[in-house]
Design goal:
Elements lengths: L17 H15 L11 H8 L3 H14 L2 E3 L5 E3 L4 H13 L1 H25 L2 H15 L8 H15 L3 H25 L3 H19 L3 H21 L9 H8 L1
Helix pairs in contact: 1-3, 2-3, 4-5, 4-8, 5-7, 5-9, 5-10, 6-7, 6-9, 7-8, 8-11, 9-10
Amino acid sequence: MSKTPSDPRFHAIPRERVADRVAQELLHLIASGDLAPGERLPGERQLAEMMSVSRVSVRAALQQLKTQGFVSAVQGGGTRVIAASNEGHSALTELVRVNRDNLYDLAEIRANIEVWAARRAAERGTREQIAEIAHHFELMARPGRALRHKAEDDLNFHMSVAKASGSAIYMHLMGVLSGILEDMFAYHRYRLQIGPEYDRLLLAQHRAVSEAIQARDGEAAARAMADHLDTVLSSYAEDQNPEPELGKDKLRIVSG
């Protein structure tokens, strides 16, 4: 009986468990942005049915992804794509709280990367993603919308632009920043710039971004976002408050 020739360039392919393939498929969806940061996954039963595998395999796959830090358990049941690191959020919040210059730096960083994202959203966003941007703008512009929603609406609008950019890297970056961005929006809208005239200006700027993205005009979307973030930067440049306190407990008092 002849012996199989030995060649170190080739090796045996290990058999892959179904759970490993499920984990790889879910990870692919996360990496591609089809599963966005913060998004809740379907339940184990639904996933098993949609992927034609057993619930045992799905459970094992989700456990792998939890161990690797891609998903986390949701209180009350279920699983969610991890949007941010609690440790990272705390560190960012503290850096901004103790030094006003760091708040300006964060605004300046946004002024660069969000212009890129607006252009990408106009050029590559799906119909559903662009409709979501329009939806969040409509909420923002709704007559009689309670003032306590200003920061929340602002954050949701910008996160929907991030999603429409189609970049998993950018979406996860925004996910990591989402906690401090929420505080930043609250500080900006409830303490730094207050009044109906400024609110109308920001609403007009968000409308320009939304309409340019709806029109699939990447350059117009980039210009509109740049104009908006230049206004935000100017607000921070003029701010003379030495210690903008961004702790959520303090902001809750201000924002109601």
